[in-house]
Amino acid sequence: MMLIALSLPLTFTMEPVSGLVLLVAMYVGAVSGGLISATLLRMPGTPAAVMTTLDGYPMASAGRPGRALGLGIGASLVGGLISWLALWQLSEPMADWSTKLGPFELFSLVALALALLAGVGETTRARGLLAGGLGVLAAMPGMHPATGELRWTFGITEMNEGFRLIPVLIGMFAIGKILEDVMGKEEKVETVSGDDSPFIPLGTWKKQIVNLLRSSGIGTLIGVLPGVGANIGSLAAYVSAKRASKQPEEFGKGSEEGIVASESANNATVGGALIPLIALGIPGSVIGAVLLGALIFHGLIPGPLLFRNSPEAVHAIIGTVLVANVMMYLIMLCGARWIARLSTVPKQTLLPIVAGSCLWGAYALNGLWFDVVVMLVFGLVGWKMEKAKLPLAAFVIGFVLAPVAEENLCAGLMASGGSYAPLLTRPISICLLLVAAALLLRKKKVTAQAT
Hints:
Pfam families: TctA. The chain has one domain.
């Protein structure tokens, strides 16, 4: 996430399609590459690789690091390709369907997405909703979409347009992570040794077909849900694989099924998360929010208009997911051992470089020091939220979706003469709201039973 947030300013001077290709390729690579350090160093490179650590590192420690890497890399490829197929086949039909939605239906759709924030991350329902609510509040300063009145600007001219997405993202994730690393303790890196081959026989993959398909399907579906993320996808697939396994006692001790389930699922979330982004303009992940910022910066509006006005951008995104998955498979298969050594770079060497890149990226957006201040403030907010175990994904999705919900609600009220009745009388709108309410009530019931 930090790499993509830092790389976003690099795309400002690039052609829109080239910039999107760079960011999408990084997205695929970031999720895929996390398995290397998780397997060899017991240090997940991304939250999505946490479940891989449970079986990848024990297998590698047992003298089979090549096999552990080979299983993870191959499963990553399969999961990525299955989600790419879903992205290719479903994004345009979903965009066409969205053209039939009016402002009230779109508001209800966003309300459903916000309801899903209650289940973001491994946190309680209340924490997910609180983080999402804070994101909504952070989106309030600026100009009212219907009346044009300024609100919560405190007389600061630079706040007339509200907080810009890019400084908020860089602050929440990059600066927040820097503060966490500076305040945290240096961890000792443990490596493993072994010389077995990462090339897995075809017979092994035949035994994993059901696991691959099930886990990739779970990952793709979870990827579509706004704000849920690859870490939840890998967790859900891992649990499902363990329940279906004939040897569940092997999970956590170097199970091949566990590695395959985790890696195929977390990579499948990439294509799934891009489906609502390009079809509806709703980011399915935090990185999707960064891509949304890149699209908007280059004048590309996600949704059905993107397919109509800029089909080359859509084709570039879909094509990049395919090519990046294949390239990551080849790169990781051939260079995993050498890539893992990058994880041992000392923090005192890396953090100043990252911090400087953050400052440059925030300032380069509009040449305003105000954006740098916003980045630093939200960096502190992100760090404090992490300490309080409030999911950053929920905050960012709330921040991104709040203006969309408000604009559509205002447009609907203007069209209906100020009446809220269409929210409950239009079939699609009421169905979406009922699903959102059911999700919240169900989560409340589950939470009550757990306590």
